[in-house]
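Summary for the funding panel

The consortium committed to producing paired sequence-structure records for every protein in the target list. Below we show the first two records in order, beginning with the earlier of the two.
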Amino acid sequence: MSDAEEEGRYRAPALDKGLDMLELLAAREEGMTLKEIATALDRSPTELFRMLDRLARRGYVTREGDSYQLTMKLFLLAHMRPPIRRLVNQAMPVMRRFTNTAEQACHLVKYDRGDLVVIAQVEAPGYWGVTIRVGAQIGLVNSGSGHVFLAFASDEERALMFEEHDPMPHETPGPGLEARLQAVRAQGYEAMESHQTPAVWNLSVPILGANGAVLAVVTCPFVRRLENPNAPDRDRVLEHLLEISRELSAQPANP
């Protein structure tokens, strides 16, 4: 049986409609009306109304006036998975300690089927800093976190990551990416100027599992703190990051 025949045999049109709407709303920063959703999916509003109403009643979308937006329920469901919950629970106290010592923010990134997603973050202890919101997706080839995941992957794993990943706007591999990844693997971390924010350096370290695979990456978007000349410099902050990398990698409960 061909793939097309297999797909046709087990079709679930109602489920497909619901998933199409969730994926559409997930890609939008602002809400959409029923008419806009129907137009985008090339379906009639009548066809989608009952399904959208059920998604709202179950808490997957919220309605404000005529506009529908995705809620955090799918994100929260994903975090109910024991490995992710355990990883976040283990990492958060260590990350908080790092931010207090380094006076910098940090975030925890997980790779999942082509996507790099921020699953936890801790803000800098001062009144300002650079943070990335939980749930944000980041680039694979133009971020410190992505470089660490790629650098510690096998050739087969790396090929699959490139195949699964849907590049973000303006995400293109820079020259010498392979040499860069080799250097990251050899030194055990990435330290690179941000491709998104001027004057920011991405300092990224791996959390390794028992088999040497990268479970997650901790990244500090380092910014020099001019108001405090005694704040740790970039090299010292990187040392603190490597310390928490070793500490979290040694956790016996790592999945």
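The next record, for a separate protein in the list, is shown here:
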Amino acid sequence: MMTRRDYMQETIVLTNKISEMKRLKGFIAKFGEENHFSRETIFDTILALEEIFTNIVHYGFTDTNPHEIVIQIKREAGLCTIRVEDDGKSFNPLKTPEPDLTKSLEEREGGGLGIYLNRKLMDHLDYERNSGKNILLMKKAVT
């Protein structure tokens, strides 16, 4: 039987402003500490979400109107699952090709490093477009 200690879930609703990053980092740090994540797991999770959130804010919307970005995090059976949902333009980050790290910065095409970093920091990524929303699932084993 699963108890409350085995399963925890929290949600934060942010607006598409980069100034919301402070709230996001605090939210993840608090959840991680309350659920006894290692410092490395908390750091990796914050870094991965910073990259995703920044991309959504900078590239996700074609207007200057306020938009909600909903982030849900849960811990269950040794796994941290993060669900990021936004109503921005359709974008599947998993279709982004990996950057050629053998090239110098000057030779490389711009972009793609944040997604590459997420692939390295998280154990599993999944994307879907549903009802006009981008939904990114990120999973990481809890240590």
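Regarding this second record: Residues 5 and 102 are 45 Å apart (CA to CA). The longest strand covers residues 7-15.
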